[in-house]
Design a protein that fits this description.
The protein is an alpha/beta fold and 306 residues long. It has 2 domains: 14-177, 3-Layer(aba) Sandwich (Calcium-transporting ATPase, cytoplasmic domain N); 180-291, HAD superfamily/HAD-like (Rossmann fold, 3-Layer(aba) Sandwich). 31% of the residues lie in helices and 22% in strands. The protein contains 10 helices and 13 strands. The protein has helices at 40-48, 57-69, 115-121, 126-140, 184-193, 206-216, 227-231, 235-241, 253-265, 280-285; strands at 2-3, 14-20, 23-26, 81-85, 94-100, 107-113, 145-154, 169-177, 200-201, 225-226, 247-249, 271-274, 288-291. The strands form 3 sheets. It has a 7-stranded antiparallel beta sheet, with helices on both faces. It has a 4-stranded parallel beta sheet with strand order 1-9-11-10. Strand 5 (94-100) and strand 6 (107-113) form a beta hairpin. It is globular, with a radius of gyration of 21 Å. It starts with a strand and ends in a 15-residue tail after the last strand. 44% of the residues are buried.
């Protein structure tokens, strides 16, 4: 079983695509500060919704693109003060950050996160939510990791306890590319030739996960199970499901552990490969594991079949 981000992929994010007002802009075509005006605010608030000195590869990619594309505009705010950051939770996969303007007269709130969570924050109607979902799918099918971005303004001195008390406005979507490691397709092929079954698990959307699975040569890449679907499966049904599904998406760390245990209960010898702290419980539960920093260089050792 293999974690995707940072293991199958390089974990070197690049901001690849912007979607605002039913228009898409491919950042690969950007040469200097030539970003069309209608995408300025989307990129501005993507940056405001990130750490000022980012360590996360996604936020680094956002900052790099924003500094390049918005140079010389009024959309960069080095003199604004960060006042509050609302915590990410399983109930709402979005992080709003509250900034105070230099004149101290207003607060600006920038939020980015899972498109569904941003849709919820913006209280989109059914038609708008469905249009957003279609746009997300179109971007995810290109293998992009997709985030929604929203903004709000606030003038009172006492900030609300929860982010839902702000009046958010949807700005659009950003798509980040994380290239597959060059060595991965050959390693997957070698694993298959050795009689091993390879399962990918990721937090990405189904369309993104399926696109990556196709790129790396995973068997039956078009079939997937989400974390929410996995939660609804009793152990007996999960044991049947894991026999023929190789793509698990929108997954949390506890899902990885449950999958390892389900495979073991079915008599499989399980090897787990990952590179993040959130992989630790599943790595510990597997009979063989590899905690990689440089990605999948070959099939897992120490096992005969899986």
């Amino acid at each position: 079983m293999v974690d995707k981000t940072g293991t199958l992929t390089q974990n070197r994010m690049a901001l690849a695509q912007l979607h605002a007002e039913d228009r898409v802009f491919d950042l690969a075509a950007l040469n200097g500060p030539e970003l069309p005006e209608q995408f300025h605010e989307l990129l501005e608030f993507s940056m405001l919704a990130s750490h000022r000195d980012p360590f996360d590869p996604m936020e680094k990619a956002i900052h790099e693109s924003a500094q390049k594309a918005l140079a010389g505009t009024e959309h960069l705010h080095g003199d604004w003060a960060l006042i509050e950051e609302y915590a990410l939770s399983r109930e709402l996969l979005a992080v709003p950050r509250v900034w105070q303007s230099p004149d101290r007269e207003r607060y600006v709130i920038a939020a980015k996160g899972a498109p569904g969570a941003i849709s919820d924050l913006c209280h989109l109607g059914q038609a708008d939510a469905e249009a957003l979902a279609r746009a997300v799918t179109a971007m995810a099918e290109q293998g992009l990791r997709v985030l929604g971005v929203a903004k709000a303004a606030f003038r009172q001195t006492d900030l609300p306890a929860i982010q839902h008390d702000f009046s958010f406005e949807l700005l659009g979507l950003i798509g980040l590319a994380d290239p597959v490691r060059d060595s991965v397709p050959a390693a997957i092929s070698e694993s298959h030739a050795a009689g091993m079954r390879v399962i990918m698990i990721t937090g990405d959307y189904p369309a993104t996960a399926i696109s990556i699975a196709q790129q790396i040569g995973l068997k039956s890449p078009d079939r997937s199970v989400t974390g929410a679907e996995l939660d609804a499966l009793p152990d007996a049904e999960l044991a049947r499901k894991v026999k023929d599904v190789n793509v698990f998406c929108r997954a949390a760390p506890e899902h990885k552990l449950r999958l390892v245990n389900a495979l073991k209960a079915d008599g499989a010898i399980v090897a787990m490969t990952g590179d993040g702290v959130n992989d630790a419980p599943a790595l510990k539960a597997a009979q063989a594991h590899s905690w990689l920093r440089r990605g999948l260089a070959g099939p897992p050792q120490q096992i005969g079949s899986m």
